[in-house]
Every structure is written in structure tokens, then in C-alpha cells.
Amino acid sequence: MAGEDSRTLGLLEPRGGGGRLAVVERVVVGLIALVVWTEMDIEGRPLYPERAAYNAVWYLALFGMLLLLGIAYRSLALPFGVWLLSSIGGEDALYFYLQLRTVPARLPWLDGHELIWQPPTNVSITAGLVAGVAVLVGLVVLEGTLIVRGRQKRRANLVRSPS
Q: What is the pTM of this model?
């Protein structure tokens, strides 16, 4: 851990840095995670006919996946962005698109969902997918920018401070 700030022990330093390639990598990994999670939703639904049991397993899988993403990429933006993307309709849109089905004109089971544009329609769910991707990209770019600026500040402080 040589050269890392002893207060953070490098835990907040993302792998791959904060450059453009790291942003693209994080966004692609986040989207792949959402596709895998959606596929789990598609394949797992018939295994749990009782909705409460299914939801418990689904949320447990979500929590585990987001935790692994955050740890693997030493990122807060990536798991939060993927969670938000799924919560505003992205996962619901992918649920149909991955099965090569059209999204129904109306999705009544999402009525009253706090984070989904109401009424939940095929347009609002698809818009949630697009908006969620934009938010994910924005969060990852913001996090990368803050990390790069923090590194520059630390380097400047190291140069100024006498050893």
C-alpha cells in the first residue's frame, strides 16, 4: 500500500483510475450487471410462485450484486447508479426486451411505484431505461472527476509540504 493515503488505505481509490476508459468500463459493467440481474428475474420467476418469497430472493440477489460491484470497483456511484437504473424502469424494460417481447402498453403492477413515472406505460418504462443509463454515466463521470481532482490535490500537497 505504498504511496496510498494511510487514512483511506486505498479503499476509496478505484481500480483503473478515473480516466475515460475507466468510465466506459464502469458503465459497461453496470449495464452487464443489470442484464444479468434481469435475466435472473426472467429465469427465477417460475421457480418461486409465491410473490413474497420471490421478492425476498430477488432483493437478496440485488443487494449481493450491488455489494460486489461496489467492492470490486471501489465505487459508490456504480452500485447506486445500477440500483437507480433498475428502480426507475430500466429493469422492467429489459425484462421484456431480453425476451424479444414488446413492453405492454400499460404495466398495472407498477402503479404507485415511487420511482417510476406514473402511469407506468411502455413509453415511461423505456424512458426510465434511457434516463437511468444517462444517470449511471453521469454518476460514474462525476465520481471519476472527483477522484482525479483528489489525486491532483494530494500530489500538489505532497510537493508543497517539506519531507
A: 0.69
